[in-house]
Amino acid sequence: RAVGDLDFFGMRYPEEVGGNEQDVVTYCLAVEELARGSLSVAAACTMQSLMGTYFLYRSGDPGILEEFFRPALAGERVGTICFTEPGAGSDLSAIATTAKRVGEEWVITGDKTWITSAPVADFFTVWAKTSEKELAPFLVPRETRGLTVGRSIGKMGVRASVTSDVFFEECRVPARFLLVDPGSGRKVLEEILEKIRLMTGALAVGAGQGALEAALSYAAERVQFGKPIQAFQAVKLRLADIRANSA
Length: 247
Known about the structure:
- Keywords: FAD, Flavoprotein, Oxidoreductase.
- This is Acyl-CoA dehydrogenase.
- Belongs to the acyl-CoA dehydrogenase family.
- Its cofactor is FAD.
- By secondary structure, the chain is of the alpha+beta class.
- It has two domains: 195 residues, Butyryl-CoA Dehydrogenase, subunit A, domain 2 (Beta Barrel), CATH 2.40.110; 39 residues, no CATH class.
- The chain has six helices and nine strands, in the order ααααβββββββαββα.
- The strands form three sheets. Strands 2-3-7-6 form a four-stranded antiparallel β-sheet, covered by helices on one side.
- A hairpin with a 2-residue loop joins strand 8 and strand 9.
- Helix 2 runs antiparallel to helix 3, helix 2 crosses helix 5 and helix 3 packs antiparallel against helix 4.
- The longest helix has 37 residues.
């Protein structure tokens, strides 16, 4: 919620929908600073500010914007995207989750894994196949019958950014919760993947800067043989390598 008060979640969206419309460089600098302090916080916040809300914005549906999108920009609701599956990552053709139109509803069935913020999410943007060749994102609120969030996945790092599996068993959502026309689903997904790659680079740079600052602080405090270890050439060389790699 505190990050929402800083207007971070709205940096890439226009003012008329509650954002503050910053350019991509400014956004990436903000991402770097978040990651510099905590990669976990940065991971959760970038999910909320981009992947977890982007397709709601693209839908343009007034009801969706008011009920889900604007509260998410304010940090009042948590959103995430469900793309990765046990057998599908970047390979779009391998997605097995399906969405079938039944009357005025879509019925979604499938399993997703490694979903950032899933244990605390209020809504999910779920990618599913609507036909053999077409993909589309759907808005699925957490309270939807048939939606089950699995246990948090244990990780070696970034543990404060919670992650879990999400299962969809004949989840029914209104027809208007189709966020992008299936015919343009792949193209729109590729657009957001380009932004995600830039954001991921910013996360890495920020985390590297934070690691360097922590290492410099420790090297100045830790004393061996009567002087701080930062005075030893071997330590200086390692710190220089970190600085070069995080520049």
